[in-house]
Each structure stands twice: as C-alpha cells, then as structure tokens.
C-alpha cells in the first residue's frame, strides 16, 4: 500500500504541481487548500506524512495551528513545513511546534523528495519486526531503538522522529563529538546547519522540562555536539 501524504497548500498551481510530482513517486496524496478542511480530515484519518504551508488563505499562521493539532494526535508522524517565508523566527517557531523539517519553496523538487524519503526511512524502522529488545542505557537515559521510545529518570521523553535519531547518534559514543554532518549522516537526513541547531535546542529543552538540572547535551563550538556523561 502506498504511503499517504497530506499536502496543505492554498496556491492552486503550486498544489497541483506537487500533487503530480508526489504521485509520480508512487505516493498517495490528499490535498487541502485551507486549515479547516485539513483539520477536519486529520480528525478522522491521519496521513503517513504531512507537508504544510504556514500561511493558509486568510490565516497567516494556519499551518502552525495544523502542526499543533497533528502533534496532539501523533508524536511521531513526520511533519514538513514548506513555505515561501524564509526567516529564522518562522523556522525556529515551526521546529519548536514539533515539525521535523522546514523547507522553503525555492528548493528543488529532488531535494524535497529526498527529505520525504529520509523521513519515511526512519518511520519504517518503527514498523520493522524486532526479535529482541534493542535498548540503550546511558545513566538515567533509556532508549528503546526498536520501539523508538525514550525515557529520562523513568519519565517518557516525547521526541519527534528526527529528534530520536539525532539523540541515538549522540549516545552511541558518549563523550565523542558529532559534527553536524555526522548527525545528518547517522540520522539519515539532509538538512542545513540552522535546522540541526534548532533540533538540538528543542530536544535539550524537552529534557530540561523533565529535569531542570539536565546538562548532558553539550555544544562544542565550531565542532558539533556530544552527550556528556
């Protein structure tokens, strides 16, 4: 059965172009032109991945509202913001709301399709059968790789798919610095440095909310990041 992608885009010409491109790759596409129609559909059936524009019709931040709705329904469903708005405030806001990626409409179609494929590769691992429990323990951190779950001091940490694989890359060798490129390679994603930084900040914040003394994700300026023991 083909993967289903929800495309929320208010520009009819852009919407039709991406519907054709996604279908050509074998995806099933459900397209919506505004937030209310997409919101109603999501309450009934969730897609396998959502691509959402931020400004929808007369709702300047309608896409952000949809992202919040989807995250309330699923913590792991991949969400991509795809927008003409290219600024740090929107990027960071989008990632803080739970999106897995933030792309601007000037990127190539090949680039967009590569990001979608990378997100699906990660989510497919969740559905893959696991004959034994694949768990990593580092101090108070427990990571169940087969189920893609994380806990800190026995409290669940709700990470997105992207955050999960970035964390997994860091804890495989605690104390060793991972460059941004290494995080991308090991997390099976293709993003820019700003997006990596935003993911790290958001992931760190989730741990701090559970434990104000948390300080294990260390930024090594000019080099990358590491998990400190």
UniProtKB/TrEMBL annotation:
- Which intervals hold domain Response regulatory? 4-120
Q: Which residues bind DNA?
A: 133-229
Modification 4-aspartylphosphate, positions: 53
Which GO biological process annotations does it have? regulation of DNA-templated transcription
Q: Which domain of life is it from?
A: Bacteria
* Annotated SUPFAM superfamilies: C-terminal effector domain of the bipartite response regulators (SSF46894), CheY-like (SSF52172)
Stored InterPro entries: CheY-like_superfamily, OmpR/PhoB-type_DNA-bd, Response_regulator, Sig_transdc_resp-reg_C-effctor, Sig_transdc_resp-reg_receiver, WalR-like, WH-like_DNA-bd_sf
Annotated GO CC locations: cytosol; protein-DNA complex
The chain positions of domain OmpR/PhoB-type read: 133-229
Name the keywords, alphabetized.
DNA-binding, Phosphoprotein, Transcription, Transcription regulation, Two-component regulatory system
Q: Name one GO molecular function term.
A: phosphorelay response regulator activity
Q: Which Pfam families match?
A: Response_reg, Trans_reg_C
Return the protein name.
Proteobacterial dedicated sortase system response regulator
State the species of origin: Alteromonas portus
């Amino acid at each position: 059965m083909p993967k289903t992608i929800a495309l929320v885009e208010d520009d009819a010409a852009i919407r039709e172009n991406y519907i054709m491109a996604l279908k050509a790759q074998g995806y099933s596409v459900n397209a919506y032109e505004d937030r209310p129609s997409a919101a109603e559909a999501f309450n009934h059936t969730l897609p396998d991945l959502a691509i959402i524009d931020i400004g929808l019709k007369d709702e300047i931040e309608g896409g952000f509202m949809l992202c919040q709705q989807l995250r309330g329904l699923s913590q792991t469903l991949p969400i991509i913001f795809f927008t003409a708005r290219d600024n740090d405030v929107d990027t960071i806001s989008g990632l803080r709301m739970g999106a897995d990626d933030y792309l601007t409409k000037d990127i190539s179609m090949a680039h967009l399709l590569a990001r979608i494929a990378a997100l699906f590769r990660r989510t497919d691992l969740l559905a893959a059968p696991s004959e034994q429990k694949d768990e990593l323990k580092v101090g108070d951190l427990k990571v169940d790789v087969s189920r893609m779950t994380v806990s800190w001091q026995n409290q669940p940490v709700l990470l997105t798919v992207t955050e999960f694989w970035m964390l997994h890359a860091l804890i495989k060798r605690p104390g060793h610095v991972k460059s941004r490129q290494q995080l991308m390679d090991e997390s099976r994603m293709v993003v820019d440095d700003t997006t990596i930084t935003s993911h790290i900040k958001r992931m760190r914040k989730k741990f701090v909310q559970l434990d104000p003394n948390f300080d294990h994700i260390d930024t090594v300026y000019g080099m990358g990041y590491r998990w400190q023991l």
